[in-house]
């Protein structure tokens, strides 16, 4: 049995940790650092950028967002590798920290998008929350963000809960702004899949020629106008 004194002494000395990363030319490089109670956070901060990005990519969406708030360096790395954003009740609200209202949900999504610089190509943006037509100013902004970021996969599921569904009327449905994708930059050609839930479509939108490269188009509770 190892004496307790020696065990404590070993813990104070710390232990060596190995993290492997790619150096950009196909070779795996090992990074060694000494782990102690006082320097854990600073050692993580000083790891190579490719290692930090790898860490962020492996975290759940909400946890990676929190990491982006630690420092300017983490925020910059988070913006670089955040190609998929998912806004749901689970990702926008903690257990019981705030009222889960549409107004609070919209405010949190807006605050998030303000922090995120539009990447060259956004792989996916998903929204799943029971928004209504009176929240058009918010949802329009999210759709415009998709177009500006040339999002490939867009999911906009605004289906309310069972109680809201029973009380709702067709006039409550958000009108999807097709014209947003009819600009000179042809952002519609980047869209590969489009999921729309509980929205209205005005198919006769002027200047909109359709999504030329759309491969997947699930629909749910959509009214065509």
Characterize the structure shown.
By secondary structure, the protein is an alpha/beta fold. It contains nine helices and ten strands. The protein has helices at residues 4-13, 40-45, 49-58, 61-67, 72-81, 89-92, 102-115, 136-148, 162-167, and strands spanning 15-22, 28-35, 84-88, 124-128, 153-157, 174-176, 193-197, 199-201, 219-220, 223-224. The strands form three sheets. It has a five-stranded parallel beta sheet. A three-stranded parallel beta sheet has the order 6-8-10. Strands 1-2 form a two-stranded antiparallel ribbon. Strand 1 (15-22) and strand 2 form a beta hairpin. The termini are far apart. Residues 6-19 and 23-41 have low confidence and may be disordered.
Instruction: Pick out the low-confidence regions.
Output: 6-19, 23-41
Shape: globular
Q: What portion of residues is helical?
A: 25-40%
Distance between the termini: 78 Å
Compute the average pLDDT: 74
Largest sheet: 5 strands, parallel
Structural class: alpha/beta
Number of H/I helices: 9
How many domain units? 2
Q: Can you write the helix and strand succession as a string?
A: HEEHHHHEHHEHEHEEEEE
Radius of gyration: 23 Å
Kindly estimate the percentage of residues that lie in beta strands according to DSSP. Answer: 15-25%
**Based on DSSP secondary structure assignment, what is the total number of beta strands?**
10
Strand order in the largest sheet: 3-4-5-7-9
